Amino acid sequence: MKTSPLITTRAELRQFLKQWRQAQPDGIVGLVPTMGYLHAGHRALLEAARQASDLLICSIFVNPLQFNDSADFNNYPKSITQDRELCQTSGVDLIFAPPAEEMYSTKPLLQLAMPDLTGNLCGPGRPGHFEGVLMVVARLFHLCQPDKAWFGKKDYQQLLVIRQLAQDLDMNITIIGLPTVREASGLAMSSRNAHLSPRGREHASLIYRSLELARKEFLDGCTNAAELIEICKDVIQSGTLNRVEYLEIVDARSLAPLSRLQSDSHFVIATAVFCEQTRLIDNIEILSHPDPEANSL
Ligand code: AMP
Hints:
3-stranded antiparallel β-sheet
C-alpha cells in the first residue's frame, strides 16, 4: 500500500513548508502531534484535522523528555509501518518523525513549566512530565507553524496545558480538543493498552464504568465530590489488578479540586490507574448546563 510521505529532519521539514507556503500563502496547516503506535483515537483526530486543513501534518515522536520512567520510555510500543498506513488512510499529507538526536540535536537549557495547571492530577506522580510535553509541543509548533492543532481530551490536563502554552506565547494557533475514543468495553484507546493481558483489559474496563457510574450518581443528585470519588474507587478496585494513583474531581477550566458540586458545574473526574504494570489514565467531563463557551474546551 502507498503510504504518506515521511520526513525525518528539521531542515527538510522547513524546506517543505517554505515551498508549500509560497504556493498556498492562505492555506491552513493542521498538526496532530502523536507518539505513534496509532489507533482509532489518533484516527479520530486525524480525520477531524483532515476536514479543516489544506496541509495535514502528523508528527510521530516518542519524546524522551516527558518520560519520568526510563522503562516506560524504552517499552513504549512502536510500529512505523502500521502508523504510515493509518496516516495514509486518514489522509495525512506529511508525517514528521524525527529521531531523538535530530529533535534535540542540542540539549535545551530553556525550562518551561506551568505549575498552576500541573500541581495535581498527573503532575505529582510524573515529575518533569509536563515540562517535557511543553518543550516538545513548543518545538513542534515552531517547526510546523500550524494554524490549528488537534489534541484528545483523554489527556485532559495536557490539553489545557497546551492551550495555555499557545495563549501565553501568543502563538496564534487554534487548539482543538476532541472526545475520547473508546473500545467497546469502554476502555479508553491508548497505545499502552498493547501491554495489557486479556485479563488486564477486563479489569481496566472498570475504570470507565466507574466514571460513568459517578456521572449517573451526580445526575441523580449526589453533589458531594468525596462520595463520588469513593464510588469510583470502589468500582475500580473491584478489579483486583487495578491500583489507583489518583482519582480527583476538578474544575474543567482551572483544574482546581472541587468538594461540593453544583447542578450546573462543569467539571472533570480524572484518574490514573496502574493495571498490571501499565499506567492508564482516563477522565469524564461533566457539563449538565449547556454553556456553549464551556463546550469550546
Ligand atoms: P499519544 O500518541 O498517546 O501521545 O497521543 C497523541 C494524541 O492523541 C494526544 O492529543 C492524545 O490526547 C490523543 N489521544 C490518545 N488516545 C486517544 C483517545 N483514546 N481518544 C482521543 N484522543 C486520543
